[in-house]
Amino acid sequence: MDPKLDILQRLPPRPLSRLLGDLAALRQRAAAGESVSVPLTTLHLRTGRDVVGWVVALDQAGWLLVHGAGPDPRQPGYDAVYLPLAAVEALTVHDAPAAAPFLSEGRLAAPEQPAPGLGPPPSRLELKRKLAEHTNALRAAVGSSLSVEVEWSGVAAEGEALRTLDRLIEDTVKVAMELAKDEMGRSALGRLTRLCFGEGSSPDVRLDGTAVLVVARLALGVAGRLGRSQLKEALERVL
Fold it and tell me: What is the pTM of this model?
C-alpha cells in the first residue's frame, strides 16, 4: 500500500475546534523559528464559500485568523481573513500525511523522507561528543558540576530520531544558558547535577531529585517534542 495513503486512512476523527487549535499552535512554532511545515487548508463555510490558506490563530472567544492563500497558494500575498469558528462547517488539510503527527495528537508519524538540505542525521558517537561540549558550556555558565546526559535506553540507534534528539538537546541547553544569565536562574540551575534527555510516551520536562528529565517521542520529529518557548516555560516551572 502507498505509505501516505496508509497514514491518511489511520488519521483519527477529531473535533474542528481542537484540530484548528493544533494548527494554530503549529503556526506559532513555525513563527518561533522551528523547522515545522504548516499545511495548507481549505475551510468550508456554512454559507457554501471556501477560504483557502494557513491557520494562524484561534482565540478563546472562537475567532479564527487565517493567512489567505490568494489565487495561487504558491505565491501567497498578505491577506488576513478573520472569521468565527462557528462559521466553519468542515476542514480540508492538504497533503495531510506530512502533518500526521500534529493531526493525530502525536499518535502517527509522518512518512519517512530525507530532510531537505540537512545532510545525514548525527550518529550516537557524534551526539556523545556534543554532550561533552554542552556540559562544559553549562558548567562554565552556571558554575557547578551539572552534566548533560542521554538515557540511551529506548532511543533509536540511528536515523531521524537522533536528529530530533540533537535539536532537543541544543534548544534545551540554549534555554538553560539564557536562564543562567539571571542570578535566580543560575542559582536554580546550580542545584542540579544532571540535565538528562530520553525517549518518553509524550513530551515532558520533570524534576527528579537533583536531575531534570526532558523526554520526547523522538520518532515523531518536531511534533513529538517541546518547542523552545515550551521548554523555557517548563524549565522555569520545574526549577
Answer: 0.71
Torsion sign across C-alpha atoms 225, 115, 111, 75: positive
Backbone angles phi, psi at 17, to 5 degrees: -60, -40
Cα-flanking dihedrals φ and ψ of residue 57, to 5°? -155, 150
pLDDT digits (tens, 9 = 90+) for 170-199: 999 999 999 999 999 999 999 999 999 999
In the block, which residue shows the cell 475551510? 43
Angle between helices 160-179 and 228-238 (to 10 degrees): 50
The answer to whether residues 92 and 156 belong to one domain is: no
140 shares its domain with 231 = yes
pLDDT in tens, 73-89: 989 999 999 999 999 99
Number of domains in the chain: 2
Statement to judge: residues 172 and 99 lie in one domain: no
